[in-house]
Structure formats: C-alpha cells, structure tokens
Amino acid sequence: MAIEKVIAYFEKLGCADKIKQFEVSSATVELAARALGCEGARIAKTLSFLVDGGAVLIVTAGDMKIDNHKFKEVFRTKAKMLTPEQVDEMIGHSIGGVCPFAVNDGCRVYLDESLKRFDTVY
C-alpha cells in the first residue's frame, strides 16, 4: 500500500491521526492482530476479486472466509481473486497492504456483514 496515498486521503477527511503504523509487519491478519494486541477477528481483511473486468474489494472480519455460493449470487460470477500484478494495477496498492481507502477509480468496495458484530475493527 502506498501509505502516502492513504495518509493524504485521510487528511482530506480530517482524520489522518487515526492511522496506525507499526515497526513490525501487519501484512496478514495474524501479524496485524499481534501488532495491535487484539483478536484476529477484529482485523478488517480486504480481499480483491475480478468481476466483470473490474476490481472488487470485499472487506470482512479477519476470521471470515468468502462463501463462494453467496459471492456468485451477488456478483453473478465465480469468485476469482486478482493476481498480484492486477492488484497493483487495478487497485493501486500491493498485496499485503491492500486497504479500501485511496484506491484507483473504478474499484468497487463492499463491506461484509461480519464486521457488524464489533464496535471497533482495525
């Protein structure tokens, strides 16, 4: 993820002070949970898919997996994750640093209902 892009995005919203940066990697749910000292379920995991030739991000709780049947019901196609090259090109962030903020134009973002069970996710 280009952290500078994300910082600039949050500065426009007046909440750049909410960004957390760590001395250790937070590239996976497990690493992020360890860095924050919380359970992995509270980490907002961003998964990237190819739908109708465009990028779709689904943000889900860290302990969830994509239900292929539900994915196909919603998007009318089989769930196909983006390749690392597609992630860079279509989303504007790199694998291990994909977030739903400051993404390229045309990238659609969906929030999974699994996030609703928490007052705070990271």
SSE map:
Layout: H1 3-13, H2 29-36, E1 44-51, E2 54-61, H3 68-75, H4 84-91, E3 108-111
Parallel strand pairs: 2-3
Antiparallel strand pairs: 1-2
Describe the protein in words.
It is a single chain. With 122 residues, the protein is α+β, with helices and mostly antiparallel strands. Helices cover 29% and strands 16% of the residues. It contains four helices and three strands; from the N terminus they run ααββααβ. It starts with a helix and ends in an 11-residue tail after the last strand. The model has no long low-confidence stretch (mean pLDDT 95).
What key attributes describe this structure?
122 residues, alpha+beta, three-stranded mixed sheet, 4 helices, 3 strands, globular
Offer a quick outline of the entry:
The protein is α+β, with helices and mostly antiparallel strands. The chain is 29% helix and 16% strand.
